Amino acid sequence: MERFVWSEEYSLGIATIDDQHKYFFELTNQIIDLVNRGDAAAPDYFAAIDHLGTYALYHLGTEEGYFKAFEYKDAAEHVEAHNIYRDRVQKLMDLIRQSNSNLKEVESEIVLFTVNWLTHHIKGMDRKYVDLFKEHGVK
C-alpha cells in the first residue's frame, strides 16, 4: 500500500488547518506502515487506529468550532460530511475490536476510506470555507 503524500494541491493556505491536515496524513501513513510491515501485533493496530480516531475528533471539532463562531452558511452540510467520517471510523474501530476480525484487512479498509475521504473532502468541501476563515483572521 502506498503512503499518503501531502502536496500543495491539498493546501488551503490556512496554516492552522493545513498543519492539522498534514498530521492527519502522518497518522494515516503510520497505519499504512503497519499494514505494509505485515507483522504488527493487535495492540499496534488498536493504538494506531485509536490515535487516528481521536485526532479526527479533534480536527473536525476545530473546523466546526470555527463554523459556529463565524456562522458558516454551509455548516450543516459540512458537519454531515464530518459525521459520515466519524460514523465509518467508529464502525471500523468496533470491527477491529472483534476477536475474529482480520486486523490487516480492517486497517487497510480504514486507510483506503480515510485517504479517499480526506482527498475529496479537502479538495472539495474544505475549500468552500477558506475565504470566510481568512476574513476572520484564521492563519
Please tell me about this protein's structure:
It contains five helices and no strands. The chain has 139 residues and is mostly helical.
What's this entry about, in short?
Helices cover 75% and strands 0% of the residues.
Mean pLDDT across the residues is 92
Cα-atom Rg, whole angstroms? Answer: 16 Å
Distance between the termini: 34 Å
Q: What oligomeric state best describes the polypeptide chains here? A: single chain
Quickly count the helices. Answer: 5
* Main sheet record: none
Question: Which geometry do the CA atoms define?
Answer: elongated
Helix content: over 70%
Which structural category do the helix and sheet elements fall into? mainly alpha
Low-pLDDT windows of residues: none
Strand content: under 5%
Number of strands: 0
Q: Note the run of SSEs as H and E.
A: HHHHH
Describe the structure using short key phrases:
75% helix; mainly alpha; 139 residues; 5 helices
